[in-house]
Records
---
Amino acid sequence: MIHPELATVVESRTVGRLHVRMRLHAPRLARETLPGQFINVRCGPQDFSSRVFDDWADFSDRLADRQDPTRNLLLRPFAVHRAWTCGPDAGRIEILFKVVGRGTKVLAGMKPGDTLELLGPLGKGFDLDWCAKLSTAVIVAGGVGVAPLFMLASWLRDHDVRTLVIVGAMSEHEVPMEVADSRVTLSFMATRPEVTITAREFEEIGCEVGIVTMTGRKGYLGLPTEMLDRFLHFTEGGARGEAGVFTCGPFPMMKAVAEHAADHDLRCLALLEERMGCGVGVCMACSCRVKGPGGTPERKRICIDGPVFDASEVIWNDR
Amino acid sequence: MTAEKGINLKVRLAGLELDTPLLVASGTFGWGIEFERIEGFASDAVGAMVLKGTTFDPREGNLSPRIVETAGGAGILNSIGLENPGVEVVVREYLPRLAGVRAKVIANVAGSTVDEYGKVAARFDSQDRVDAVEINVSCPNVRHGGMQFGADPSLCAEAVAACRNVTKKPLIVKLSPNVTDIRAIAKAAIDAGADALTIANTWLGTAVDVRTRRPILGNVSGGLSGPAVKPIALQKVLEVATWMRERRLDVPIIASGGIMTAEDALEFMVTGARAFQIGTALFSDFRAPEQIIGGMKSLLGELGEHDVNAVVGTIKLT
């Protein structure tokens, strides 16, 4: 159930250019968040409301707190990148974000031991009943769009689904995860880069990883969709059972991924992003147009009807 | 809390008995059930909920982005554009879900034409679950209707009269602050049959991305709300309350504009508001209603008051 949770920052480190990975102790969210769901984060000093008061004697103190100028008014939505329910990180979640504005700037400045307030889990995640039936999954992430897809990859691997993860970025410095040089090359790629790079995090859970960069200095040169296309052509006709495509990233990339998936008659799930006001479905700020039953357009709220949508219902020419 | 047990927060508003003077503003509480999904949401702090603005036909609303926070977290600009599925869907699908809700339910009526205001109000009039009707003559985010009705006294009067003619339910008119003299519009609304006034809707504003040189909002302009507007909303309430006092008019004012704390709310009540709405505060914290009502009891206790109604209009101007 959607609930507030006071989390403690366990670790915060920068990865690549302007990306931050922040590990938080939030046991209930770690337990309850499903792949594709997100959380709202109060990017600023902890609000008074999260403390427990037995009386209202210090009312004026709390008043001052609420008008703290460093406080952001709106909570900011973040994908849950990882969640641990056992092992040394049990009870922790990790968010992965790019510093783009005031909220993320404040958040990036928080240190281990700091507390911050979360609200979640929010939204509907991926269709896991369908995911469980897959033999092969291709995950296509653009930049920080990889954030919500690790939990999915992890879930898929736990269910023995062969999973290829394609991450696209401008350069190797802008891959929002730790990357390492690698000797592994992907069998379905005709041309090989001089230096292949990989994200060990995905490899560790048994995914195949293809990192694509626009510079091509490291990683495969090109667009994520080019790699997706090669893979789909390569496997076509192969007895690999049902395959599915998952994507999150810049809208034009997701649109292209959806088209490629449709060309191969594969179902594609896209995780959409939008500026949000409330995150719980009341403000209509994140509303988008989708194809309803019979193809007639209808409006959905990304925060509660999504953020995961079937790519075939998204109206890709809307932006 | 024992000292505060004896404090009365019940208010009467244009024939409505509210458990608390706190209303949740139209457009910030969806269709009334969404917040129930949050563990710990204290619905008993809410005296009445105002539903999302409803038109006769469905409306798609504006292009995104539709929301942006302003400098220092002082406010938010929104340009939703009255997205709603139309009154028929609201009546058939959304109202029945509110059957068990203890708070009063106020429908919010919007339109592009006088005729549309009347048709929507008439549809709500036949609904038992609707306790009152708020007319939105102040939406800054739609091209036709909305604010233009709130900026012209005669148009405002026509829209209010169209609703008055079709409903006996309490009629609240939500005024726009984007006018030279809000008292002229208030007068028009009262003369046309308004039972109460909500003062006020959002202020027109915009924001520009200097890197792309484009407006941030898809609709170019939006409505500003939040702590940034509180002093100017309070000024509007002061103007209307003073004008009413001079004319011995007693039409309840529902304050709205940047209320984040109990003290903010009491400022408006002392100035003359009988009740108040919160909106932006809810986005910031779903516990706002509970905190404001709890804080209000405490603050009233501190002031030696046992009844919130006793502070209404007690501002000392001389």
Note: The mean pLDDT of chain B is 94.
---
Amino acid sequence: VRVALFITCFNDTLFPETGISTVRLLERLGVEVDFPAEQTCCGQMHFNTGYQREAVPLVRRFVEIFSPYEAVVAPSGSCVSMVRELYPLAAELAGDGSLATRIEELGPRVYELSEFLVKKLGIENVGAYYPHRVTYHPTCHSLRMLEVGDAPLRLLRAVRGIDLVELPENEECCGFGGTFAVKNADTSAAMLSDKIRHVMDTEAEVCTAGDNSCLMHIGGGLSRGRAGVRTVHLAEILASGDDARGMEERG
Amino acid sequence: MTTTAGPPDAFSTGKTPTFEQSAKRSLADTQLRRNLGKATRTIRAKRAIAVEEMPDWEELREAGRALKERVMRHLDEYLLTLEESVTRAGGTVHWARDAGEANRIIAGIARGHGASEVVKVKSIATDETKLNEHLQREGIEAFETDLAELIIQLAGETSSHILVPAIHKNRAEIRELFMRRLGAEDLSDEPEALTNAARLYLREKFLNAEVGVSGANFAVAETGTVCVVESEGNGRMCTTLPDVLVTLMGIEKVIPSWRDFEVFMQLLPRSSTAERMNPYTSFWTGVSGEAGDGPREFHLVLLDNGRTDVLADEIGRQALNCIRCSACLNVCPVYERTGGHAYNSVYPGPIGAILTPQLVGIGDSGSDSLPYASSLCGACYKVCPVKINIPEVLVHLRGRVVRRKQDRGNLRERLDPENLAMRAAARVFSDRERFEKAQRLARIGQWPLVRGGAIHNLPGRLAGWTEVRELKPLPDRTFREWWKLNRGEG
């Protein structure tokens, strides 16, 4: 299998380790990974904040760059849901029928990492080793827009050495919501407090999820409170193990 | 007792605060947070059970959506058929373009009968038109007979929930209010005792009132039958005891045929109160005969008040499909923490956030803030019994808000830092080299903010983030730099 990695601008800039882990993990499973370097941003921030005219050129760019690939994989439920669920609306608002057709063709080939592994490749045990107490937060877009279901949990349960604990009220939003966290910072903070309380209740040392945006939000609150709990992207847990580095790499 | 006008909202004249401003106040109210958290958690869990036991729930939702969509597509025809049917059954139909017109029609009917008091069934449409205040100015007292509506009327407040207007109050607060306003002595805070105090007070009103005022959950075009769904029996009293009944109904509430109740009477109770069957469902068709229960005179006032404008927006119009179950409020993490008053509208919560700005029109700073009162978590869409894609409409309305500012806004709106920053960012993202350069510049530019491996304070509008969260600084290399080094040029 050959896939294009859709790293997302957020991971590219802020969380390179997640991208590196995704590459190592996929390669370890025999997947050939290509990184189309022309990619920048899918346009989600613009689109969801109301800057839809500004988002449309980014939508076109994305479709142009990724259409040649058989499958596209991203370590982000949120950005994948933008492509799969909101790109059709973007084409509708732009009044562009041919863009709509291309989106219809590309959309189903764009996968969030956990659903690519479990639903497309049929793999649950990726051979990872992670001896830590971990709790999993299902991010809203993975859960309700992409409906990845228990794919991430199946992958986590198969990790050797892991002590996986259930997060109470896990289906509730952490309060990130993109620019919501800035525009409605007080409400967002109130939601975050409850999420953090639930994370603390699990006595986990690691909180994981399929989206670094939500993890940056939860992690930012945990670290401000000196909680002693860290946030780690699902890809990094799945890529870890005794022989995690795999191929010869420089830095 | 007098009807106290509540604070101004999106439907009254004058400027309303933004959601952010109002939310700040309610978030600080710990009693409110406790009351709301408890109430929404309980009702959420009960609804989940009531829905779980229905094997064809998804088919029902789809049927509800399809029915409502058909109504909106042929609204003009259904309304004319409804008018014909109601008239045939002895009722009178009035058309009201806006709130003022609706209020004048209703006050005129009450005055024509020399009424100085009217009894009311819970009706959000009359809250939208501010009917009680209008009647008061005309010397007519409106008495709310729904328990929760009575509570907030006595307290001089406004509703904070579509179904449970007094959800923000707990039993102890209600007991104190009844002792103060109804002169009830030795009252306990047991629900039975509180209801009994209200019943004693209301029974007298029911028996004396000549005019009843109601809203409508549904009206059947083919038969002219109007339907009110309630849980206390007060609605039945108001629609059967007074000689004259006036119903104010938004034009979107019409349904094609009697058979359609099969779908809605399953969807609505389970979604709103988690009941298998609704306790009091009243249907009436025109006027009653000499012997029967019910009004001798019936008026149906059809209210537009912005609804045809909503209908003109092909994405936004699904907001009109709402059957007012309030399931979206009960699952909304934003509503649960801010409560309904933060929305400054008779329609709070996720549905209010898409309905209010469309009804009053884009361009008011207060209601323009409502589509942003959501993290787009999607919980509302999952529970909506008629499958209104609330997140999609929220995003669409944000677009309308931004485009109005960009195209027709004043100078301040066009020079808004957010607008400028978003446009600049879009330019950066539109080109790979510009994007890579911006990544490098940001890494260099962040140094004044980084202290001990974290960013503790962000400037300007971003400061809200660092009030309760730290920010991770940009790492030494981007992913694409690593890729280039380790996997060659992509």
Note: Chain B touches chain A through 71 residues (CB under 8 Å).
